[in-house]
Amino acid sequence: MNARILVVAALSALLAAAPSAHAAPSAQAERETEQLIQALGRSGCEFERNGSWYGAAQAQEHLRKKLAYLRKRGLADTAELFIERGASQSSFSGQPYHVRCGGAAATTSAAWLQAKLVQLRAAKP
Questions:
Q1: With the CA atoms of 58, 29, 102 and 50 taken in that order, what torsion angle do they form, in degrees rounded to the nearest 10?
Q2: What is the mean pLDDT of the chain?
Q3: Burial of 96 (0-12, 13-18, 19+ CB in 10 A)
Q4: Taking the CA of residue 86 as centre, how many other CA atoms within 13 Å lie in the half-sphere pointing to its CB?
Q5: Are 100 and 46 in contact (CB under 8 A)?
Q6: Residue in 125, 93, 106 with CA at minimum distance from that of residue 45
Q7: Which of 104, 71, 110 has its CA nearest to residue 88?
Q8: Which one of 1, 76, 94, 101 has the lowest number of neighbouring Cβ atoms within 10 Å?
Q9: If residue 17 lies in a helix (H) or strand (E), which one and from where to where?
């Protein structure tokens, strides 16, 4: 009986240590996520994270880094998951990100990106 427990424990440890295989995101998911990041970069809007406002180019760079981190771990297989897991709040502070365009009131980045995703999908032929 003890030998069986040791075998199960050893197999469990090997499985836990093995790198997990992640399915690559679909071409559509990659395209949509990239389009969202580009839309923010072209928007001229400001991006707030952890209490500081940044220009659209800096926001774009930051979100690309977060996307790379998530994709490496298989955690952003759709544009929606990217928004939810990487583009909505700081992984450091847990505070939500915000987007402010011109004189309009700031909105959460999640709401801004979700609205942009709806627009992108509606414009698709």
A1: -50
A2: 85
A3: middle
A4: 27
A5: yes
A6: 106
A7: 110
A8: 1
A9: helix 2-17
